[in-house]
Amino acid sequence: MLPLPSFNGEPHSYTRFNLTQNMEGDNSQVEMKLSSDMDEEAGGNGVGARLNHNSNHKPFVAQKLGRTPKNLCFMAAGIFLLFIIGYLVGYLVHRNKEVAPVCSASIVPSEGEAVREMGSPPMMDWDDVKKLLAQKLTASKLDSAFIEFTLSDHVAGSPGDEDLGNKVLNRFKEYGLKSWTDEHFVTVHDLPASNINRIVFKNSAEERLVGFLSYSATGSVKGAVLYAYYGQENDFRTLRDRNIDLSGRVVIVRAGRISFAEKVANAAKMNASAVLIYPDGDDYSFDENIQLFGHVHMGSGDPYTPGFPSFNHTQFPPVQSSGLPKILAQTITRRMATNIFRQLGGQTLPEGWKGFHKLGDVNDSIVVEVNNILTQKKIINVFGVIKGFVDADRYVVVGAQRDAWGPGFAASTVGTSILLELARSISEMVKNDGFKPRRSIVFASFTGGEYGSVGATEWLEGYLSSLGTKAFSYINLDGIVTGQKLFKVAASPLMHTLIERTLREVKVNNGLSLYSQFAKGNWELTMLEPLKMDSAAYPFLAFSGIPSISFRFTSDNPDYMYLNTKHDTREKLNFVTDRRVPQLAEQGGRFAGHIVLRLIHDHLLQMDLMKYDKIIRSQVSQINGKVVAVQRMQPTLFPKSLTVQWLISASGSFSRASRKMANDVQNSDLDDVEMCRIINDYLMSVERNFLSPYVSPRDSPFRHILLGSGPHTLKALSSHLDALRASTPEADGDLFRNQFALATWTLQGCANSLAGDIWALDNEI
């Protein structure tokens, strides 16, 4: 990484085209060359010889040359000629400096490609950029795209999925984008071709299941049913506090609130033998026989190639993701769940829980049989790029899921349509309207999303070394429209300031902005939500360290209920949006478009470091308070010698480095393209530096210490302190101290990276 310069307008040694330094060097070369010429003319003792002598030798030189009129004329002519040649050479050198390329990202165009400007392109006013996008991205255009890309069957790797991929590729080519595809051979769980998945409760008839959960363990178990509400961690703690033994129990939980994978992982921690997930009527008011589909991999990508890509030519030894469950998991219908609940005994429901009256007794036995089969599928991601005119090798990625369990209108069709309309609109702005983006845009159509962002994650794993240093943001278009009453955003804190500005810019109804309509005073309280693991933006952020954003129009409660079913159609989405899907898609598309265009239009990336500074100080303060409490209550586990001072010091180092960086950005010279590039590279590295270098991508792929998942995160440290304070079985003082030390040094490493030069680092720790 290049050292961070001082941004006060003074000359810098790193500047590639420093006229002062280069002109001095060029003048010395010209002077030596001319001296040599004069030496030859004067027999080696002319002007060149005089450069090596002081004034005491001048009479000797004059005497040797002679002061005849003829010699004086020759000398005058030579001096005049020397002056003219020096002036011309100096002029030409200075002119070359003026027209020299000022951007290291300038590239030589390939044959047939339009010649791009070598320097910084003329800036188009931001208001004009917004107006152009509003003119080109319209509801009517999106409506036409919905019709073209609606398909009833396009499961990942199916012929329907491949057909849609070819349509996307042809559209990219039609719009003039440089296009390519990326193949992966992934392993997934699908329904058995001959056998069936089934349940048998007590003496009831066998229930055969059509819905399924990919990556469940397979086999058959028999156990007693236990109702666990939504299957969240606090739900299982409630059951444990009632002294209910969960070992070997078949847990039945409602769908919603957290992902299927998290429900199964929570049950596995309590030693349950199986999990049954059903759509309760409080959250899903559709027909009682509708089946649910999904996956239970506590991660993303192909779980049989964790941490590395599923290319066909790779020969990795057999390995599995640590996020694969060891217990059975299966979806059932509401009708099946109701039949079970009516026959349960046991304790009454805890206060606040909804459902039937009983939790289940040890005599309420059920047999669960899962026979899913492993299948290898070829999946194809499709890409197109609009190249930048200054930093063409730095790019924002805009992506959308293409596959679905059924029609997938909200899950994939809307996002894919917006992706293509953004590509068309921006490419027309470049070709026809004179817009010249500084940086590039990569449009990505991913597949395998329903199996856990498989296509997106495999692409990240395959090109991590390049994407991690050159992709500065990911904009996720999945599930943008699932309602109309609320607007929710989940993103890296680095992007929060940019998001707020964009919310204020994008107009919706009657000239009101998104902010005015949905923020209700404080947008962070009413619109901001955590980025969930089942979002395609999550692996970009927590696995690759790329600032990411996901957003959606949605309903208050319940949310759009047809995701993860085969009934996600335009008619169903029209019902919950009052037939305003094209208009909502246009507004969502313009929100995404404004963010994309801001990131490729401005000299500096709009990344706000101080947002992370606030988050870090808050979490460190919480950890400090909990450590003091544990030391007071458990002095044997936590002696007074254990101090949080190291973590506080690391937090202070990051805070000082962030403020200095923010000040440097504020005082930077926007006309210095090379300086802007260096600043942007530093901003891009911030998210990446939050990835813990002390954990394996295979065991803990989401390595982000603030937004990731695993024992290395600051959130896990705080939870571990709660366990130590309560003396729960999972509490381990030695393990905590190890996690504490690694998290502290990861945070200090982030501060060191921002500080830049090795001699500028704060090594108080």
From TrEMBL:
Segments forming domain Peptidase M28: 381-580
InterPro entries listed in its UniProt record: PA_dom_sf, PA_domain, Peptidase_M28, Peptidase_M28B, TFR-like_dimer_dom, TFR-like_dimer_dom_sf
Superkingdom of origin: Eukaryota
GO MF entry, a single one: transferrin receptor activity
Swiss-Prot/TrEMBL GO biological process terms: intracellular iron ion homeostasis; receptor internalization; transferrin transport
Subcellular localization, as worded in the UniProt entry: Cell membrane; Melanosome
Membrane topology (UniProt): Single-pass type II membrane protein
Transmembrane annotation, as ranges: 72-93
GO cellular component term, pick one: external side of plasma membrane
Domain PA, chain residue ranges per copy: 227-288
Post-translational modification: Stearoylated.
The keyword DNA repair belongs to this UniProt entry's keyword annotation: no
Domain Transferrin receptor-like dimerisation stretches: 644-754
Pfam families: PA, Peptidase_M28, TFR_dimer
Family that this chain belongs to: Belongs to the peptidase M28 family. M28B subfamily.
Subunit structure: Homodimer; disulfide-linked.
Protein name from the UniProt record: Transferrin receptor protein 1
Species this protein is from: Gouania willdenowi
Lineage, uppermost ranks: Eukaryota, Metazoa, Chordata, Craniata, Vertebrata
